[in-house]
Amino acid sequence: MLKNNNIEFVFNDEYILIVNKPPKIIVQPSPDNKVNLTTILKEKLKESLFPCHRLDKETSGLLIYAKTHEVASFLVEKFKERRIEKRYYALVKGTPKRKKGIIESYVIDKEGRHFKEKPKKATTFYRLIKKFSHFSLLELIPLTGRTHQLRIQLAQIGHPILGEKKYAYKKDFPVNFKRLALHAYFLKFIHPVSKEKVTVSIDLAKDIKEFIKKKGG
Questions:
Q1: What pLDDT score does 217 carry?
Q2: pLDDT band for position 203 (50/70/90)?
Q3: Could you give the CA distance from residue 18 to residue 10 in angstroms, rounded to a whole number?
Q4: Mind listing the domains of the chain with CATH numbers?
Q5: pLDDT digits (tens, 9 = 90+) for 25-81
Q6: What is d(CA 127, CA 139) in angstroms, rounded to the nearest whole number?
Q7: What per-residue confidence (pLDDT) applies to 116?
């Protein structure tokens, strides 16, 4: 839960707000959980805000809001066209054999199985940042936009993200993290109004840094 609604604003102008989303909070209200980041921000800023993409409840990091319907439509379309670059940090089980590479596979979100959804091709670039005793820190760049793509593909290659509960089992991990160890740290895109390049990046989430310090020996 947020303490004093303390949310970091990384970029803020007349048209766009980019925040550093804390973990353990959903982006939009749901029937099961009405405490959500969007409502908190609207009440704090007294402005209209429209989330332009999604981050899972447990994922932390950069999240873009538009302040008008027109800007929201523009940015949502750019996400669909893969014109907005996103990068993540993740702590994963073990260490990949290669320090960097491309993961290509067909993925299907487990929730989609109920609707007989067909698997879709997904592509992710990864790079090893640092190796520890039982886990590694990776940089991840999704080159396609499938639901839970990073989580599914890392589990497929035997290196699930620490804290993963949907695509891996707790017994699979030699160390446990209290949430999904996935952090959206970088965004690059063209501003929908000024047409200038916007590049924002943030450091690792505090809880991930503390975990590395404690368990990374």
A1: 67
A2: very high
A3: 5
A4: 8-83+189-204 (3.30.2350.10), 87-172 (3.30.2350.10)
A5: 999 988 877 789 999 999 999 999 999 999 999 999 999 999 999 999 999 999 999
A6: 5
A7: 61
To the query of whether residue 109 is one of the catalytic residues in this protein, the response is: no
Q: Which of 13, 32, 56, 203 is catalytic?
A: 56
The DSSP annotation for the chain comes to --STT--EEEEE-SSEEEEEEPSS-BSS--SS---BHHHHHHHHHTS--EE-S---TT-EEEEEEESSHHHHHHHHHHHHTT-SEEEEEEEEES--SSSEEEEEEEE--GGGGGGTPPPEEEEEEEEEEEE-SSEEEEEEEESS--TTHHHHHHHHTT-PBTT--SSS-GGG-SS--SS--EEEEEEEEE-TTT--EEEEE-PPPHHHHHHHHHH--
Residue 108 CA to residue 181 CA, distance in Å, equals 21
User: What is the Cα–Cα distance from 36 to 25, expressed in whole angstroms?
Assistant: 6
